[in-house]
Design goal:
By secondary structure, this protein is an all-alpha fold. It is about 50% helix and about 0% strand. The chain folds into two domains: about 70 residues, no CATH class; about 110 residues, no CATH class. A two-stranded antiparallel ribbon has the order 1-2.
Length: about 200
Amino acid sequence: MNNVFITLIKNDLKPDTYYVLHCINENIIPNEYVNASIEKIRLIKNGWLSEDLKITLKSIPLLTEINSFFKKNKQKTSSDVMGLLFEEKIITFLEIFPNKKLSSGKYARVNSKNLEAPFKWFFENYSYSWEEIIKATEKYVDEFSIRNYQFMRNSQYFIRKQNIDKSYESDLATYCELIKTNPDNENINYFTERIV
């Protein structure tokens, strides 16, 4: 709302004067509490209206700017971005991780509610399906299970981890790409024990 008043002040318009201009633009009869005839004279004198009470080219940017302040930016909900059953999918994802503390001192599984924002970010930045995400996660956890999960990221940091420069990296995206580009090799175990 402050933006409206700042714009009016910047353009040397009183709220009542703008109200009459708005009413003329929208073909609305101004309320009787506003002296429309005096405001019309001001609008004509300052070039906002023509003599025949038509909106001038000067008025169009002002009307557009003020109307833009009232348009709501509809943010996409989690279900818009991740699908209707995203909560179930997050739980499926989470259950792939071991229910234990990692060598980093963090638990492998974090609360499912803490994963909603990272997954929303992931779906806004990458175009992988839930099926690819689940397969990629299974591959990641399987690879680290051989080493007793040493140096494995927890479920939240696997989706995204913030770097020092405030950018994000995603091991999940890397593994999804691996699954997508090498579907035949998804069961290859890269860490094997050496028997002597």
